[in-house]
Write a structure and sequence with these properties.
Helix content: 40-55%
Strand order of the largest sheet: 1-2-3
Number of strands: 5
CATH topology of the largest domain: hpI Integrase, Chain A
Shape: elongated
Strand content: 5-15%
CATH superfamily of the largest domain: Intergrase catalytic core
Mean pLDDT: 84
Length: 294
């Protein structure tokens, strides 16, 4: 049988809001009572204790709403796929980030939305800050925050938003790290196939961004031997092709336009995972911000 109690969970932070705690089978969940008055919290507690002796239908109406992540996460991804397309970059990026989030939830025994409160949201942000670069951390937190806001609307959870009052840790700016030429050679030697070897070579030896490398093809190579690149804001540039890159192009063989314009290369998170495998195989330390640009 469920039991109930009340407390000011974050009083030490200056948050005087009262919370209701529901205990069942050794597991606990919390709900904000949206009040700073103990008398209001006590009224809720009295009502819930009285409801224990009422018919099941009445108890169900009085119980705080909640949903399991088993249900909510797939449904959220379905909504993103319906809006953006299941093969869109947005859907694939959200799927990748929420996979990491789900693994963290499982590792911490958090199964329902209400158990992922402000304290857990802070723990999640701290965990990310210890493992990811600032940009990646920001994207992961933003994705999970959007999921929680979506869940609050879809499941009618009131003002449920565990990220609202969370002070995320500031990550100090660090100088960007780059792999050495020897390390890049080891990574290229562990590429899964000639296509990925050439793709990474274009990034490493021409300094192209990921999106720019995806557009690489024979039509990019001009008569004067330079490479035409269209960068951010559709800005056009013509770059010299280094002898090292020429050697990789010759090694690969015949080029074709659109050779990297596929989901295999175009999706950054998926492409980075392939790179991670090659990095580990080459016994090179992995950098969360891919430093192939020279």
């Amino acid at each position: 049988m469920k039991s109930y109690s009340i407390s000011q969970r974050y009083k030490y932070r200056g948050n005087l809001t009262w919370y209701g705690r529901i205990a069942e089978d050794g597991e606990f969940s919390y709900i904000s009572l949206k009040t700073k008055r103990k008398s209001d919290a006590q009224e809720w507690l009295n009502m819930m204790n009285a409801a224990r002796f009422m018919p099941e239908e009445i108890r169900r109406k009085l119980m705080p709403k909640d949903r399991g992540f088993d249900e909510a996460l797939p449904k959220f991804l379905d909504s993103v796929a319906a809006s953006k397309g299941d093969d869109s970059k947005t859907h694939l990026a959200y799927k990748y980030r929420l996979k990491t989030f789900r693994e963290w939830l499982d590792a911490n025994g958090i199964k329902t939305l209400m158990r992922f409160d402000a304290e857990q949201a802070t723990n999640w942000a701290v965990w990310l800050s210890e493992r990811y670069a600032p940009k990646s951390q920001h994207e992961m937190v933003r994705c999970t925050s959007q999921f929680c806001q979506w869940a609050a609307k879809i499941y009618d959870l009131g003002d449920y938003n565990p990220f609202r009052d969370v002070a995320f840790p500031k990550v100090p700016k660090r100088a960007k790290a780059f792999w050495t030429p020897d390390q890049i050679e080891k990574i290229l030697d562990n590429a899964p196939d000639p296509e990925f070897r050439l793709f990474w070579s274009v990034m490493a030896f021409a300094g192209l961004r990921h999106a720019e490398a995806c557009r690489f093809g024979p039509s990019c190579i001009q008569e004067d031997g330079k490479m035409r690149v269209v960068g951010k804001g559709d800005k056009e540039a013509f770059l010299p092709i280094s002898d090292r890159l020429k050697a990789e192009i010759k090694r690969y063989g015949k080029l074709k336009d659109g050779m990297f314009a596929t989901a295999r290369f175009d999706h950054a998170d998926r492409c980075n995972e392939t790179l991670r495998i090659a990095v580990e195989a080459g016994n090179v330390y992995f950098l969360s911000q891919i430093p192939l640009r020279g």
